Amino acid sequence: MRYLSFPYREIPEAAQRREVAEGVYWLRFSLPFALDHINLWLLADGEGWAIVDTGYGNETTRELWQQTFAQALEGRPITRIIVTHYHPDHIGQAAWLGQTWDAPVLITQGELALAQKLRGIPDELIQTEGAAFFQYHGLDAERARLMTENGNRYRNAVTQLPESVEILRDGDMLEIGGHQWRIVGGNGHSPEHACLYREQDQVLISGDQVLPTISSNVSVRMDNANDDPLSDFLDSLQRLGQLPEETLVLPAHGLPFKGLRGRTNALIGHHERQLARVVAACEQAPQSAADLLPVLFRPNLTPHELHFAMGESLSHLNYLERRGQLKRQEVEGVVRFVTE
Ligand SMILES: [Zn+2]
Predict the structure, then answer these.
(1) What confidence score (pLDDT) does residue 32 get?
(2) 307 SS3 class
(3) Residue 335 domain-assigned?
(4) Which of 82, 151, 211, 219 is deepest in the core (most CB within 10 A)?
């Protein structure tokens, strides 16, 4: 990845902050997954701190926050909580932080609405209709059962949502610590993702909309099965890539980097290659989303990873179907895609 440079390679210790731009500090929290950390961003805001993203909704994260309050935050208050998107590692502690500091939570309408909707899905519905959905897309009954037997995992990872919020919109300007930050909307990884951009010195807090070393998951969810999030994601990458080349990108996972346009182009290229693989496979024989897993992803995915992989396989199929490059066929309760 010669097109990227990493100006800050020294990862902050637990509960410590590291300055990466004027008044902008890097915090790193652990996550209980293969993706083992998330970066949160602390912005000096008068007597206190604005925080961007909040960590996973578990007890370990709250304990780390308690240490962080005393150490990185030096006992100064959190003034506002900005949530980039609905995923549990980003929104997990938003309600708790808001209550602890009596501070507003800022989030887009699209992200809040999806978080509320997902928390409301009953366990039994996931165990029955969720499992049926994955079988309809070609998974065997046993793997479909393993993926859904725990019911609503989102509700376990986001134990509460804030009771009231301030709604963010694309293009909104936020003044934080005397600096202007613009909300830059993105789509495809989540419905209405918020990045924050400080034009004065070209700093972008990118959330999961663009990451330096991994490709953000772009998934079709069963509650929106005909959606085409890959189109949205590719459009958003094109737009983000228009920001100045000198922009310092502060991602939610991995190291801060420069080389935004090179990275957005590489990610677009990755999806174009994945789309070509799907078309080539469908030219040989009809393919379900599950049939395509070995074509698109490494083998031996855990049930947790299978959710992302099935969703992403479907996002490529829906993208191609919408453009008339593939057609769906249903045979004996399984849907497969073929070229015309
Ligand atoms: Zn995410």
Answers:
(1) 80
(2) helix
(3) no
(4) 82
What is the whole-number distance in angstroms between the Cα of residue 204 and the centre of ligand 1? 16
Q: Cβ distance 175 to 189 under 8 Å?
A: no
Is 2's pLDDT higher than 90? Answer: no
Taking the centre of ligand 1 as the mean of its atom positions, its distance from the CA of residue 262, in whole angstroms, is: 21
Dist. CA 56 → ligand 1 center (Å): 11
Confidence at residue 33, expressed as pLDDT on a 0 to 100 scale: 77
Query: Ligand 1 mean position to 244 CA, how many Å?
Result: 24
Residue 50: inside a domain, yes or no? yes
Each residue of 73-128: pLDDT tens digit? 999 999 999 999 999 999 999 999 999 999 999 999 999 999 999 999 999 999 99
* Cα of 193 from ligand 1 centre, angstroms: 9
How long a stretch of residues is the chain?
Answer: 340
Dist CA 317 CA 225 (whole Å): 11
Q: How many domains does the chain have?
A: 1
Under 8 Å between Cβ of 75 and 48: no
Q: What's the CA-to-centroid distance between 299 and ligand 1, angstroms?
A: 23
Q: How far away, in angstroms, is 266 Cα from ligand 1 center?
A: 19
Average pLDDT value for the chain: 96
| C-alpha 209 – ligand 1 centre gap (Å) | 8
Boundaries of domain holding 80: 18-283
In a domain, 333, yes or no: no
Distance 87 CA to ligand 1 centre (A): 5
pLDDT > 90? residue 303 = no
For the domain that residue 150 is a member of, what is the CATH number? 3.60.15.10
